[in-house]
Amino acid sequence: MPLLLLLSIGLMGMTAMPDDINRFYEILPGTIDGWTKAASPDLYTPKTLSNYIDGGAELFLSYGFKGALSLKYADASENEIGIDVFDMGSGPDAFGVFAHSRETVDDRVGQGCEYASGLLTFWKDRYYVSILAYPETAQKRDLVFKLGRTIAGAIENDGPLPAIISLLPAENLLPETVHYFHHYIWLNSFHFVSNENVLDIGPDTPAALGKYRQSGAAFFLLLVRYPDAARAEAAGERFRRTLLGGAADGMRATAEGRWTGLERRGDLVGVVLNAPDAATVRATFAKIKG
C-alpha cells in the first residue's frame, strides 16, 4: 500500500468547482518553494482504486467513492509530497471518510482538518483530501498547509454535514468522536456491537455515532434513520431480541455492569451503549432532538 494512504487510513466537497477532477491538478502551481509538480496525475475509479490502496479501498467504496486524483511534488533531492483528492459524491460522505479516523477538531483548512506527523487531511463539499510530506520538517509542514489551502480555496462551496448528526445531543458529547456511516462494519470499528448486521444498516440508512463523557464515565449513542417506520421497527425488534434478551423495556445490563438500551421514534432508532447505569440510558434518550 502506498505510504500516503497507509498513514492516512491509520491516522485517519466542491459542487461549484468543475466536475472534472483533473482541474485539481490544473489549479496547483507547477513549482512552489523549490518543489516541482509531476508532469501528470494518476486517476482512479471505483474499479481501479484497490490498485492504489491495496486493502484500504473498501472504506472509500462504502461511502460512495466516485473518483480520485493522485499527484506528487518533488524537490531537488527527490523528496516527495503526495496529494490525493477523493471525490466522494456528497458532502456527508466526504465528512464520513474524514471523520472515520480523526482524533482532534481543527478548522484551519476546509470544513474540518487534522494534521499529524506530516499528514494533513481535510474535507470540503464532496471532497476528501490527503496531503503527506514524510518525514516531517517545518518547511514541509508549511508547504503542506499552503497546498491544502490552495485546494480548499478552489472549492467554492461548503458541503452539508450529515443531517442525522444534528440529532446527537450536544451535552457531554466529545466532538472529535462523531462518526457518520451507512455500512454496519464501521460501527464495529468504533464500538463492537455484533458480528451480524442486527440493525439492518445499509446504503439507505444513515447512521451517526458519538461518544459521551459524563461524571468520568464514557458511553456511546448510536442513531440510525430508516426509510420508513416499519423497517425501523423490524430492526429495533431484532436488536432487542438478539442483544437485549427480549427485554420489554428495551434495556439490559451487561456482565460487566454496563447498560445497553434501545428506543424507536418513528423511522429513527437510538441505541445507548456502555452506559454506567439505566438512568443514563433514559436521560440520553430524552435529550435526542428528533
Assigned CATH class of the largest domain: Alpha Beta
CATH architecture of the largest domain: 3-Layer(aba) Sandwich
**Contiguous uncertain segments of 5+ residues:** 1-18
What oligomeric state best describes the polypeptide chains here? Answer: single chain
Which fold name is given in CATH as the topology of the largest domain?
A: Protein Transport Mog1p, Chain A
Number of helices: 9
Characterize the largest beta sheet: strand count, sense, and whether it forms a barrel: 8 strands, antiparallel
Provide structural commentary.
The protein is built from 9 helices and 14 strands. The protein has 290 residues and is of the alpha+beta class. It has 2 domains: 3-154, 3-Layer(aba) Sandwich (Protein Transport Mog1p, Chain A), CATH 3.40.1000; 163-287, no CATH class. The strands form 2 sheets. Strands 1, 2, 3, 4, 5, 6, 7 and 8 form an 8-stranded antiparallel sheet that branches. Strands 9-10-11-14-13-12 form a 6-stranded antiparallel sheet, sandwiched between helices. A hairpin with a 2-residue loop joins β6 (113-116) and β7 (119-124). The longest helix is centred in the middle third of the chain and has 17 residues, at 138-154. The protein is elongated, with a radius of gyration of 21 Å. Mean pLDDT is 92; it is low at 1-18.
